[in-house]
Amino acid sequence: MNFDRHRQNISNNGFMVADGILNEDEINAILNLINKSDTHPDTFRKSDDLFAIRQFFKTLPKVVPLVLTSKLNELIAGIFGEGYFITKSIYFDKPAQSNWFVAYHQDLTISVNQKADVQGYIHWTKKQNQFAVQPPSEILGQNFTIRIHLDDTDKDNGALKVIAGSHLKGIRRSEDMNRSNESEVVCEVNRGGVMIMRPLLMHASDRTVNDKQRRVIHIEFSKADLPQPLQWSEKFTN
What we know:
It contains 6 helices and 14 strands. It is an alpha+beta fold.
């Protein structure tokens, strides 16, 4: 794997794509485990438009070794080095009949164990007994997200659209974007491939129009220590 090229793409563009990280046997093992799981816990959300499992690794611990393969761990270490740990994991399935889209945005919040009055931590929310907060931009700037694709994903079934280099411009609102000066890229990823991105990268996704589902495992990483009494709610060290 060309780690130098991947590092340069992430540094300059805010994202990179790599194919062939999971093979067919590994993908099928993950999907079989998901299909056999109990969907009653609160971390499951199921509708005609979306099937999602929040706190994915906590909810289905047997899936962890199937996802965090030696090849994926080699990719992470080769690009980012040591010291990073998982802070959030989500599985979601955008079904073939899905008709929803996501407008351009940045991922500005992290999941923590409690709400606390800590300087620099703003915009608190609570959803499904999970606290989220926007941390200082220094933390967001060093974090990264890996999206593992369990289906071929292109512009017709909701592949992410990103504004290359937008992670370098800090926190901003989508309405402040000058689209005439922005470089939009559709991040098509083959089944078994991954997309890695910085959370401050502006990204969006369109409706599915080709009757093909899009199943993705979304994993967030950090190496930041949070100020007391805050702790990462899903901290997991591989």
